[in-house]
Amino acid sequence: MVQLSVACPVEVVKVRQQAYGDLVGGPIQCLKNIYLSKGYKGLYAGLGPMAARNIGGGIAQSAVYRCIMESIVKKDKPINWMELWLAAGFAGTVSWCKYLYTHHTYYPYYYYYLTICC
Fold first, then answer.
1. Which DSSP category does 25 fall into?
2. Which of 3, 19, 44, 94 could be cross-linked to 64 through a Cys-Cys bond (beta carbons 3.0 to 4.6 Å apart)?
3. Exposed (0-12), middle (13-18) or buried (19+): which is 13, by Cβ within 10 Å?
4. 83 neighbors 72 (Cβ within 8 angstroms)
5. How far does CA 101 lie from the centroid of its chain?
6. What is the pTM of this model?
7. Per-residue pLDDT tens over the stretch 35-61
8. What residue segments make up the domains of the chain, in order of their start?
């Protein structure tokens, strides 16, 4: 949740620049304009949906990681890098699948045909 304090204003500036292009200036100028016109509330527009997306993905990722680690790691031996890599990889994949599902639910006519489209 702490990363949202930085990620949300960055996302707001990014979207504003994508929508209006050169009319809003560079990132710093756009950030200043948003702050001067709408204050902190303008910088954190969309914080609720962004938090819901991050929390849902984080819960799924943590649960999958924990389940995999409990099933493949033996109590009497140390964890090796391959087990960590496998668990983290599957957990990250589940988190992204949750994100793609959520994105598809909100935007049903926008499809990802290839992994590179993400």
1. -
2. 94
3. buried
4. yes
5. 13
6. 0.59
7. 999 999 999 998 988 888 778 778 888
8. 4-43, 47-117
